[in-house]
Design brief:
By secondary structure, the protein is of the alpha+beta class. The protein has six helices and seven strands; from the N terminus they run αβαββαββαββαα. A hairpin with a 6-residue loop joins β4 and β5. α1 crosses α3.
């Protein structure tokens, strides 16, 4: 969920136009959404189907500032983005046929209020064959994009930041737990969580 107070905010007409453009590009057949962060453990809708999935050409990264939900304007936290390069394992969630527009409306309110993400239809490999799913890819031109952070700085930010939805550290750990519950092992994220657990108050 986005909350970038310094990013470009879309007005309701722009938001609707953005959603309509994405839906106009949807492939034929079932509609899927690729979850790689909080969409895995809090999708906001009841999926008609759910599969493990892999996307090539992108990776999961704590690369987006959070200045309200998981941080503050003076002490921003971090949330996940789908950044280019590598491979990302996550889940694809099937949107019920009769709920596509209301579900996408809620997703746009959640993820696309600012300019931090770009909606993209990506090919996802699943155990039951490839599907094309809507994914929210990080916008590297957005003001909230952090780029590559040194590990110690990233750890300090995650340990310290908290926002209206709670500590940034809880968000990171819930995502890692949700991935493990799905049988997904993100070595980079597991390393970060191990460091956080080892000394959760190091930066406080």
């Amino acid at each position: 969920m986005l909350d970038q107070s310094t990013a470009t905010r879309l007005d309701p007409e722009q938001l609707l136009a953005s959603m309509d453009r994405a839906l106009a590009q949807r492939p034929p057949g079932d509609v899927w959404v690729f979850g790689y962060g909080s969409l895995i453990w809090r999708p906001g809708f009841a999926p008609a189907g759910r599969r493990m999935a892999r996307v090539r050409g992108y990776h999961r990264s704590l690369c987006l500032w959070s200045r309200i939900n998981r941080g503050s304007p003076d002490d921003p936290g971090l949330v996940f983005g789908l950044d280019r390069g590598g491979t990302c394992r996550g889940v694809v969630l099937q949107v019920p046929d009769d709920e596509v527009r209301p579900v996408f409306h809620d997703l746009w309110q959640r993820e696309m209020l600012m300019d931090s993400y770009l909606p993209r239809w990506l090919s996802c490999a699943t155990p039951d064959g490839d599907v094309t799913a809507l994914a929210f890819v990080i916008n590297r031109q957005a003001s909230g994009y952090t780029g590559e952070l040194q590990e110690q700085r990233l750890l300090d930010i995650v340990r310290r930041a908290r926002g209206r939805y709670g500590p940034c550290m809880d968000y990171v750990m819930e995502t890692e737990q949700a991935l493990r519950d799905c049988g997904i092992h993100d070595r980079r994220l597991e390393h970060i969580v191990a460091q956080l657990r080892q000394d959760p108050h190091a930066a406080l």
